[in-house]
Amino acid sequence: MKEEVFAKTENEVDFPEKMFYKIGEVSQILNVKSFVIRYWESEFKQLRPSKNGTGQRVFRKKDILLLQRIKELLYEELYTIPGAKKRLQKDQRETKKAKTVEGKSTKIRKKLQHHKSKLIEIKNFLRNDSD
User: Fold this and answer.
1) How far apart are CA 55 and CA 42, in angstroms?
2) What is the CA angle 121-125-127, rounded to 5?
3) Is 55 left (phi over 0), alpha (psi -120 to 50) or beta?
4) Domains of the chain: total
5) Alpha helices of the chain — where are they, by DSSP H?
6) pTM of the entire structure?
7) In a domain, 127, yes or no
8) pLDDT, position 112
9) Residue 86: how many CA atoms within 13 Å on its side-chain side?
10) Are 24 and 66 in contact (CB under 8 A)?
11) pLDDT tens, residue by residue, 72-90
């Protein structure tokens, strides 16, 4: 018998690790009705699951994580739909900024490492030259 691998999200929701999930599976994972997920899909433009050959919605892990975040905002933090939309947009902007800063810091770190190695070469050259 094959053992299913489970992934954990930030809030410890267990779900089997696979490429695609049908709406019924997502409904069970998040403990919300399928019609709620379809409604959220109509309200939140960030949520656009693919459809398979038969036209059924198929969700990826990133879709489930987004749905979980929407559920948190609406049910736990008590945001309204418009408020949750704004908060998701703000979160996306902050994530984008963080990635940009991370990319820049990586470039700077590489440049500093390069300069450090050049300075070490010069130091070693001067040491050898004075001997």
Assistant:
1) 16
2) 120
3) left
4) 1
5) 23-30, 34-43, 61-71, 81-130
6) 0.66
7) no
8) 83
9) 5
10) no
11) 999 999 999 999 999 999 9
